[in-house]
Design a protein that fits this description.
Length: 135
């Protein structure tokens, strides 16, 4: 229900107990909405921007292809080391190593999680509940 209509409904209530209950419910509703609206106004930092800041150019990832699309893991690994190196780098991550799932090991396409021009994806959480922060 729209908050303004809710206000009208609450002030027209005659039972003081119901009125207080409705006011409390409305406050809870607003408390739940605030974090959502804040999240919407925060400018996301894309991983491609992070790369740009480190001097990695469009060509480093996309080559000279006119039509830029998805970038294969081999190209990422060209700079970030072997799959085994990557597994080692995140061996300390709790509760599980995102680069060494028992299902796929390090054989996943990087882009499944590390989107470059849009919000990154905690892909494991389709099924698990890991608190990964995917850069
Ligand atoms: C030309 C080399 C190069 C290529 C190609 C490249 N990267 Fe990077 N990447 C870097 C550098 C340099 C940094 C910043 C230094 C660092 O933190 O390692 C970086 C940073 C990152 C980070 C952030 C690490 C952190 O600590 O926050 C991630 C994630 C990442 N790259 C993933 C990828 C993926 C996925 C691809 C392929 C789509 C890719 N990179 C392609 C060089 C490269
Ligand atoms: C299932 C999701 C997922 C996939 C697929 C994935 N990563 Fe990651 N990656 C993560 C998460 C989560 C982290 C952050 C771990 C942490 O908390 O430090 C990370 C961290 C990194 C980092 C920073 C490591 C550091 O120095 O701490 C690099 C570089 C990176 N990934 C590159 C890659 C590359 C290259 C690929 C493809 C071969 C890849 N990742 C595939 C989830 C993923
Ligand atoms: C670190 C590697 C990396 C860098 C640097 C990078 N891209 Fe991308 N780009 C990707 C990946 C991976 C995708 C696949 C979609 C995604 O992850 O967002 C992509 C997709 C695209 C697409 C296809 C549209 C889409 O969103 O699917 C365009 C266009 C593009 N990139 C342009 C650029 C330009 C222009 C630059 C330089 C300013 C750049 N990219 C720098 C990795 C990179
Ligand atoms: C499509 C669903 C799905 C996805 C996506 C998925 N998993 Fe799993 N995972 C499972 C199932 C099912 C099990 C078995 C659970 C059991 O036996 O109790 C499992 C088990 C595991 C286990 C063994 C320990 C445990 O909790 O039972 C680890 C570690 C694990 N997954 C890590 C990962 C990581 C890391 C990712 C992301 C790269 C991932 N999983 C993505 C479905 C998934």
């Amino acid at each position: 229900m729209h908050p303004i209509h809710l206000n009208e409904r609450i002030s027209s209530m005659s039972n003081p107990f119901l009125k207080r209950l409705a006011t409390a419910a409305r406050l809870l509703l607003f408390a739940a909405l605030i974090p959502l609206s804040q999240a919407a106004t925060q400018a996301p930092t894309m991983t491609a921007d992070l790369h740009k800041a480190k001097g990695v150019t469009c060509v480093d990832c996309h080559g000279t292809a006119k039509k830029k699309t998805f970038v294969a893991a081999e190209r990422c690994l060209g700079c970030h080391g072997s799959p085994a190196d990557l597994v080692k780098k995140t061996a300390h991550v709790k509760p599980e190593n995102p680069h060494d799932a028992p299902h796929w090991g390090p054989q996943m396409e990087c882009n499944v999680c590390h989107r470059q021009h849009e919000k990154t994806v905690n892909w494991c959480n389709h099924c698990h509940a890991y608190g990964f922060k995917v850069p």
